[in-house]
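User: Please predict the structure of the protein below. I'd like the answer in structure-token form so I can feed it into my own downstream comparison script.

Assistant: Understood. Taking the following sequence of 170 residues as input:
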Amino acid sequence: MDTEKIINSIGFNWNCLLLTRAVFSNKDFGVSMSYDSPGFYTQRIIDVSVNWRKLGKFKDVYNPKLLNYWHNANFIIRIYGVLDEYKLLEKNNRKKSKALQLIHILRNKVGAHQNGLQRPKKKYLRKVNELFKELRIREMEIDKISNFDLAIDSVLLKLKNALVEDIRTF
């Protein structure tokens, strides 16, 4: 197994997520003719200014909240693909890694293959919460969830870091 190649691939996908979110996941997307990337991204060297020539009807066509969901789900799908390519998602590996378990359930049962607007089944949310707790990711209030949106700072960043840490041990 080429550990560094896998970790670099995860890093590449993380940077793509940061870049797309810095441009399209801004509160001013679809509202303002220009805006700068939020602090979370500038702290991670994605410091962009966006200037639209024509505002158009972005807000009507591309709801920013749904774009956030799409970017995050796309990251989960792509990371799953990288892990699957290197056979890291096999059951024996998932037993050893809470991060691999979480990617597996997020991709297949909870968030990555739906529109993000429906409430996932409670049994999957409970399992995700259990894994969140073990990975020191903030838990969700299951009864208050009406959709499934993974926060980039409190969920995806911690998940990415846990994955990299676990992959280094294989």
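That's the full token string. Residues 3-24 form the longest helix (22 residues).
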